[in-house]
Design a protein that fits this description.
The complex is a heterodimer of chains A (217) and B (226). With 217 residues, chain A is an alpha/beta fold. Chain A has six helices and ten strands. Helix content of chain A is 30%, strand content 27%. Chain A has a six-stranded mixed β-sheet, with helices on both faces. Chain A has a four-stranded antiparallel β-sheet with strand order 2-1-4-5, with helices on one face. Chain A starts with 7 loop residues before the first strand and ends with a strand. Chain B has 226 residues and is mostly helical. In chain B, helix 3 runs antiparallel to helix 5, helix 3 packs parallel to helix 6 and helix 6 packs parallel to helix 8. Chain B is elongated. Classes of the chains: A alpha/beta (217), B mainly alpha (226). At the A-B interface, strand 6 and helix 2 of A face helix 1 and helix 4 of B.
Chain lengths: 217, 226
């Protein structure tokens, strides 16, 4: 059942680390079924914004809700299981195989075992599923992360430079994942330097500059 | 604690054990190193057999304690920042993650103790009767649980600190003293053939206190690590 409330709702939101402001006065509202792109130079606050949306980093100013949960309260812990994040570094266990990594996620989230083989096949890893992560290429590791997203079906999917270093086929998987998520009534936030590629996925685009979020690519 | 809690905890345990089996850090590196330390002590203090029999049990626990903390800290380091974020976003209960890691560490420490026990027995020939050895086997899991919990807690504390991480093992060492004291005194009691009930109760109480402390501090420590 898609969430009826805004998936992301920030008003005057800010993040300070020590005395340094990282984000300032961010206003952002993302409705169910929307995909939003965020561009900006290195160090402009894109990843910080993504981590706040993931509830992994608490804001220090303003107001913020994700999937209805107040980011300043402990209720943010309750919605974490509905958020998917693909970050810069693959979040996989190098000593485990691709299948074991996916099975671990299935086990934690209570998904049936047969889905593990299915989602790995969907991202083109059926033949490599017994290979250890530390013996896989970056592209294969990324595909394993896409398999995790297929398995967990998050209501909010956060992609941080998810296209980086991928071949065209794997890049298409990113677009397909984003469409699948919005099609289910979820939302996607897509952080990238590549505004042209993002334009094929997102409904709206924003740019971060000096900690501010402004509309437009 | 719900079924979900234990399902998550055991999934973490299984993942940790598989990773250890693949790297072999405890059995192939740490355990032989611990055995070498046990061997060095007789070389350092000479072949005074009564003295060795007297200090042997204490040496065994000290080696298990020091190398055990290393094992536990190493185990806690298997999750880097991306993995910790992933676990958070999978909705895992931090207490379940703590329990899973502590169970895996305890299992590895038990294995570590089991490997070193015959080495210590052969090198030091402690004056312990057949029943005493049986009681000793009962002490091993109690000590491993306490050390596994303490080490996991120390590992989480290390990850949550932005500065002063290298001081954590030094801070943990005094907390391990009651564990060491109860284990060595219980073993001394076995050697002298006196009751060890009080020391066993202390060991169990320490295990319980550390388990409660770990479960209660899991969420704040996890949030502090981000």
């Amino acid at each position: 059942m898609p969430p009826a409330i805004p998936v992301v709702e920030f008003a005057g939101l800010g993040v300070r680390i020590g005395d340094t402001p990282i984000l300032r006065g961010v206003d952002l509202r993302i409705e169910p079924g929307e995909a939003v792109g965020i561009h900006g130079a290195n160090g402009s606050g894109k990843t910080t914004l993504l981590r706040v949306a993931a509830t992994l980093l608490a804001p220090t100013e303003g107001r913020g809700r994700v999937l209805g949960a107040d980011l300043f309260g402990s209720e943010r812990f309750d919605v974490r299981g509905r958020i998917g994040l693909i970050g810069h570094t693959p979040a996989l266990y190098p000593q485990l195989t691709l299948e074991e990594n996916t099975a671990f996620v299935a086990s934690i989230t209570g998904r049936p075992d047969h889905l593990v083989t299915e989602v790995l096949a969907k991202v083109g890893l059926a033949g490599a599923r017994h290979r250890r992560v530390d013996q896989c290429s970056h592209g294969m590791q990324r595909r394993a992360e896409f398999a995790r997203v297929l398995l967990t079906e998050p209501d909010l999917l956060l992609l941080d430079e998810a296209h980086a270093g991928l071949d065209p086929l794997a890049s298409d998987l990113v677009s397909a994942l984003a469409r699948r998520t919005t099609g289910r009534g979820g939302a996607v936030v897509f952080v990238t330097h590549d505004a042209r590629r993002a334009a094929t996925i997102v409904d709206r685009a924003y740019t971060t500059a000096d900690g501010h979020l402004v509309p437009g690519p | 604690m719900t079924t979900g809690f234990w399902r998550q905890a055991l999934a973490v345990t299984r993942k940790e054990i598989v990773a250890e089996v693949r790297t072999g850090e405890v059995l192939l590196i740490t355990a032989p190193f611990g055995a070498v330390v046990l061997l060095l002590v007789p070389l350092a203090i000479g072949t005074d057999r009564p003295l060795l029999a007297r200090v042997g049990p204490g040496m065994y626990w000290v080696v298990v304690l020091i190398f055990g903390i290393m094992v536990a800290l190493r185990q806690s380091a298997t999750d880097g920042a991306p993995q910790r974020d992933l676990l958070g976003l999978l909705g895992i209960d931090p207490a379940a993650r703590f329990a899973g890691q502590a169970i895996a560490t305890t299992a590895l420490l038990l294995l570590f103790e089991a490997v070193l026990l015959p080495v210590a027995g052969a090198l030091y020939s402690p004056d312990i009767s057949g029943w005493g050895w049986l009681a000793m086997v009962g002490l091993l899991p109690m000590f491993a649980v306490g050390l596994g919990l303490l080490g996991t807690l120390a590992g989480w504390l290390t990850v949550s600190l932005t500065t002063g991480r290298s001081l954590v093992p030094l801070l943990v060492a005094p907390l391990a003293i009651p564990l060491l004291l109860s284990a060595t005194q219980a073993l001394e009691g076995l050697r002298l053939r006196v009751s060890i009930g009080g020391w066993v109760v202390l060991l169990l109480a320490l295990d319980l206190i550390l388990a409660v402390a770990g479960v209660l501090s899991a969420r704040p420590l996890e949030e502090a690590s981000r």
